[in-house]
Amino acid sequence: MPLSVDDISYSYNKGLPTEREALRGVSFRAESGILSVIGHTGSGKSTLAQHLNALIIPQSGSVIVDGSDTSGSPAEVRSVRKKVGLVFQYPEQQIFAESVEEEISFAPKNWGFDEEGVKKNVAEALAAVSLSAEFLPLQPYNLSGGQKRKIAIASVIAAKPSYLVLDEPTAGLDCVSARELEALLAKFAAEGMGIIHITHDVELALRISSEILILEDGRVVFCGAPEECAEFLCSAPVKGLVLPDVLELSKRLASSGVVDKLEWNAETLLERLKEKWRAQTK
Amino acid sequence: MPGAAQFILSGAEFSYPGSSRKILSGVDLEIRAGEWVALLGSNGSGKTTLLKILSALLAPTQGSSFICGGGSERPAAERSARCAIVFQNPEDQIVASTLEEEVAFGPENLGCPTEEIRGRVSESLAACGLAGMETRLVSSLSGGQKQRLALAGALAMHPAAILLDEALSMLDPQSRRAFTEIIAAEHSKGKTIVQVTHRLEEIRGAERVLLLKEGKIALDMRREDFFKMKGSELSELGLELPPLERLCEGLKEGGLLPEGCAPEICAVEKCLNAAFGR
User: Fold this and answer.
1) What does chain B look like in DSSP terms, one character per residue?
2) What is the ipTM of this complex?
3) Interchain contact A248–B (C-beta under 8 A)
4) Which of A59, A102, B3, B262 has a CA 20 to 30 Å removed from the CA of A53?
């Protein structure tokens, strides 16, 4: 069963002079695979993320996860929170324990895993984010920003959620850690987990997603496959976003007839150009 | 043009209290006034700690640090006035409820007269594209606007140096571009910039590149020389060429682009159109 978002709207400070509409009639469905949500800062991405595990309840519309409604009974809300793991934009917002081990074991303990299950999940989660067991006794607050991000992700995946929502997970990570995280998300998706990936990085979204949703001022202006998304982005400007360099170049080369298809991946465009060059110089 | 030494670290080491792990080890570094220095390194390499030492938020546990000719013994307000730091998360440094209160906070603490504070607030908000929003609530701003507000607060201190700790990492591409333009404008007025980032596409304005590895300076070179390194050499240092630069490197190796072609969209487009007879 999918995670289904149907026509949700949400305003901060509703009814006050400072009321601000964050989401306006947003709908989509997510199953296994990577769904990336892109949009300008203030477009509603983080508000949407918090709706997905019932941290925020929609003021209208519904969020239903595998049959459980986030606006439903406490049992339904509990089921949603167990199935949907949320990794916040700033890891320090969710880290609270005195040691890495305590931090990562909190969720599996809370969801009733036995002692052996907790140990197994903690070990698997730590390995999944490429950290060694030496980190377990360390104080999370003394770790670097990137290491805290990994601990935050490990602490969420240790509860074995069906859906993982990550708010800007690669921001602040070095390129090696970012690539490791991309591979990790691809692995989770291949294993059947639904990944909802919030990002500003258009190139990354095009590269790793099975589907992309674009938010602009709280509305969905596009939802579809990466190829369609590239076409959409090239056809009209979207607030806050700029075309990644390689896609911009590819768009220009397509208009002059050098290439016949939009590409956003540097390596793929290189291969296309080399093939064409070989054919021309034969 | 870079002037006199603004930051000097000699044999600087740093360990957090209660930990024997050295976050920084034997760092010797001189940054001159007016330089734009990019500070790179993997997570945990010591970048933020080094930035905090440069801003005198931390003092080295061994060795010495001199900031604008003075060390961490100088009064806090005086040190803050010389170096302003902008963090990754603007929420970590915003304290007031309206934009003008936020930007006025620093100059007020420096004891500036009221009229001067008003002038600094207007000037700094305008420089960051926030003019006319003086009385707006900070809570109504988007993430990108909050980041520009944090920068406006830093500029209002009239610092000699601006230290950026991954200050662009949470911004959308357009906001990132706007923020970079503000930094470039401040640099052109003679301000020293020290910019921590993981994204090499963000360091195109820098003059010098430093790489920290396990708390030590592993590389210190001019930006032009840094970008002459091959993708494979950078990869050994834990870095990755931006996609357009990777594409250009492959095109040059394949003979489709001349060696002198700059890794810029217009230049590459022109060369490829010529190569394919368009």
Assistant:
1) ---SEEEEEEEEEE--TT----SEEEEEEEEETT-EEEEEE-TTSSHHHHHHHHTTSS--SEEEEEETTB-TTS-HHHHHHHEEEE-SSGGGT---SBHHHHHHHHHHHTT--HHHHHHHHHHHHHHTT-TT-TTSBGGGS-HHHHHHHHHHHHHTT--SEEEEESTTTTS-HHHHHHHHHHHHHHHHTT-EEEEE-S-GGGGTT-SEEEEEETTEEEEEEEHHHHTTS-HHHHHHTT----HHHHHHHHHHHTTSS-TT--SSHHHHHHHHHHHTT-
2) 0.86
3) yes
4) A102
